[in-house]
Amino acid sequence: MEAGWIKYLRSLPNTELLGDDAAVIGSSLITVDMLTEGVDFILAETSPLLIGRKALAVNLSDIAAMGGIPRWIFTAVALPAGSLVLPQDMITPDTFAPDILAKAIFAGMQPLIDKYGLILAGGDTNTWDGGLVISVTVIGEVSPFGIFRRSGCQPRDKIIVTGQLGGSILGHQFLFEPRISEALYLNRHSAVHAAMDISDGLTLDLSRMLTESGRLGATLYETQIPVSSDAVKLSLQTGRSPLEHSLSDGEDFELLLSVEPNEAVRLLTQQPLMPQYGVRLYEIGEITAESGMRLRRADASLQSIEPKGFEH
Amino acid sequence: MEAGWIKYLRSLPNTELLGDDAAVIGSSLITVDMLTEGVDFILAETSPLLIGRKALAVNLSDIAAMGGIPRWIFTAVALPAGSLVLPQDMITPDTFAPDILAKAIFAGMQPLIDKYGLILAGGDTNTWDGGLVISVTVIGEVSPFGIFRRSGCQPRDKIIVTGQLGGSILGHQFLFEPRISEALYLNRHSAVHAAMDISDGLTLDLSRMLTESGRLGATLYETQIPVSSDAVKLSLQTGRSPLEHSLSDGEDFELLLSVEPNEAVRLLTQQPLMPQYGVRLYEIGEITAESGMRLRRADASLQSIEPKGFEH
User: What is the pTM of this model?
Assistant: First the structure.
């Protein structure tokens, strides 16, 4: 949920919105994310398998951001009744289009359900005269090793991410692997001060983590941002620099971690996620007591940067 | 979720769909319901306060159907960005229409949030180029006195409902009171064998309860169906009989209870929900070992009836 809405909803009585990626109720983690046609996917251009996968994966990424274990899923789907455009090979004359679509959406979730041993425990399937909307609720368990929160950043912490950034619109947005196992490993074996997933863009999400941690700031190292090859590809189309894409593109769904400096050195040297998960940790900057965000250029000069990313 | 989908989803691996109104995970109850524009409400004709209220109330009714205690709510909303038709007095030049709409939706939920001491703990608010969609997740607690399920009907049980039925489209669909307190009272003080809420129509929902209870049947007493005044009013417009409306109209959101016969006599005589809640219990029929549903006419003749109601 975006900052403005969180602020508004927090102003209402009877709310408990801590600004983390999932709510904590007792030993349960709960997250709800909704995908809408035209914003999160283009139905005519995207396999419904990938749409279903993404609808679940974005929620799993929220559980990963809390260092937790996903367990149960609930789906609410609004299926378009009319004027449905599906890939040609999915259409047969004796089937009802919304049914094919819904089955493909569930089939797209299945590999992640299997991989993490999830249980589909309920939901609501509707047909209406509108576009495709999928809302998924995931219920997880708090890890016995604790909860990752956004609010724990401390000055001099190193900022670490779990993968390359930018250009996810070229495909990564549908194919990303939620960092469940990686987060559980770090939760068990390391001292992470704060975490979230990068869903709306590195600088925008980092600014949210800094706000939750009490007006801290950050310096990002320009030469150490892991610019993805998709960010480079996309920059050829947009005319913006690959770095800009890495700093502000949404839907990377990598973990953004704030780690105690000595522990960070150990993690970055040992790269403990490589052997089992093939995931490399990248140091991209540090937390500062001074508020605001800065980019440290190759020549060591500092340039002030504003949060940029996808606002809902 | 409708029967066909439950059957399909049950056929997938890793599902636990028990066919009740809410899922049971440990001592938690979880329910997810989605409302879509044009199906569950007409945005141009309905105050968004009432739409918000309904989106929450239908979920609370599911918790009531399980005899449980609602605690936390999560909302996922897709707000129409363009061509929004709102009542004239809600539009001011300096406000952004989706924001007004969203605030009104939350304001509509507030009285129920206050009444039941709920906590808004998270959600997802989106703007898109489509109609209004609201998905609400409610998490509740299992009552220490147990769980109402659909599967407990026994032959000779009396079938009892908590209010008059039919014609809810004339207004009750937005104004109904979820039977939370009544269900908790019955759960604590009475022996209810099975329960659900009437969301899709009496005979359709009853047939589902009978199926979950293992192919039992039911006889409904024509002269004892509590026909609402709205069912009578609606029949003047539709040409269908008031009884037909009571038997098949959706969205009554009354409890449908299967109660041990002696206990049923006690409840119907003592009417324990009247003093505190103003709610009268109506005996409308009985469970039979013979499958199928029958209507017992005034002259004691039996007429076979088919499940009728709203299929999603």
Answer: 0.92
